[in-house]
Every structure is written in structure tokens, then in C-alpha cells.
Amino acid sequence: MSDILALTRWIHYIAGVMWIGHLWFFNFVNLNYQTEVPAELKKTVNPPLMLRALFVFRWGALFTFLSGVYMLAVLWGSADRWMNSGAQAWYMGFGVLSGTVMFINVWGVIWPAQKKIMTGLQGGPAADPKLAPRAAMASRVNTYLSVPLLLGMMGGAHKEYNLFGGDLTGFLIAVALGLALVKLGYMLFPKINTKIYKAS
Asked: What is the pLDDT averaged over residues 99-117?
């Protein structure tokens, strides 16, 4: 069982990197890039780029979620090890709740909307204009949850990594700090200089 659990945790981390990495690409890189791309060019560039990225994104989310469910089921069998472990239980609980919300957003909101949007760009029926803002909001929510989610994964599995005293107050401070870091990213990444060569 320990080998299976270790393998599952490894899969959880690999899939999580695929998922969160693409989430950050969408929100901190692609979101700003799309404001600079002419509408006609989007029809050529976006479908092959976005469909590849969305494939890795959604399947990364699925394997992260399923491996997390398995690990939770194993830990539930030994609940006495963490249910009464103070802040560690808060870290794990927050990670589970955040990851579940994020997974539902990916498969229930973002991917269905993007599938229709990409279909429209490839010459199919035009997507409802409400879909893009809805998907963007779900993606933004996921981005805000992602940083404290990683904190929950870290602190839930390793008590020594509980921050700011390792109690409930410290946990809440750490979550607030994670949300602030994402907000800072939204403020700073649009200002990145994208011009290296300047004609004299």
C-alpha cells in the first residue's frame, strides 16, 4: 500500500504541475497576449495553440483530482492521524476544498465554454458572447485558489511546513498572503516589457 500511495502522490504532483502551470500561463501570459493580437490573427493562432494547451490543462486537472481523491480515501482510513492535528487538518481541508472547486470549474465551466469558442473560431457556430467572460471568471477564481491550494498541499502533508506558528491564525494569514500574491501577479504581469529590439 505504501508504494501505491507514494506512486499516487508522485502522479498527483506531476499532474498538478501540468494543471497549475497551464492555469498560470492562461492568466498571466496568454490573457495579456490576447489583448495585443488582432482579431483576424486569433482565428489562425488561437485554435491550435489553445486546444493543445487546454488538452494538457484539463487532463492534468483530472489526474490531479483523481489521485487526490485516492490519497484522501487512504488518509480517511487513518483519520485519527490528521483530523485532530490542529492546523494540519485545516491545511489539508483547504487543499481538498480548493482543488475540488477548481476541478469543477475546469470540467464544468472552462472547458465546455472554450470548446464552443474554439469551434466558432474554426468556422463552426458562433459561441454565445457570455461564455468567454464566464470562463474567464472561473479561470480567475482558480488562479486565486491555486497559490493557497499549494500551501494546503504542502502543509497538509508535512506538519513542519505549517506557516506562522502552525495554528489556525497562522493558516489564515498564509491563505491571505497567497491571495495577495496572485493579486500582485495580475497587477505586475501586464507591465512586462515585450520589446527587446528598439530601432535607432
From this structure: 97
- Say which DSSP state 197 is in: -
Contact 187, 179 (CB under 8 A): no
For residue 145, how many other CB atoms are within 10 A of its CB? 24
At 71 the pLDDT is 87
pLDDT of residue 165: 59
- For the cut 60, the answer to whether the pLDDT of residue 79 exceeds it is no
The secondary structure of residue 198, as a DSSP letter, is -
Question: Judging by beta carbons within 10 Å of its beta carbon (0-12, 13-18, 19+), is residue 133 exposed, middle or buried?
Answer: exposed
Quick count: other Cβ atoms within 10 Å of Cβ 43? 13
Cα 84 to Cα 69: distance, rounded to the nearest angstrom: 20
pTM listed for this prediction: 0.86
Q: Could you tell me where the DSSP H helices lie in 77-198?
A: 87-105, 111-121, 131-157, 168-188
Q: Which three cell numbers stand for residue 165?
A: 506558528
- Sequential DSSP letters for 29-53: IIHHHHTTS-HHHHHHHHHHHHHHH
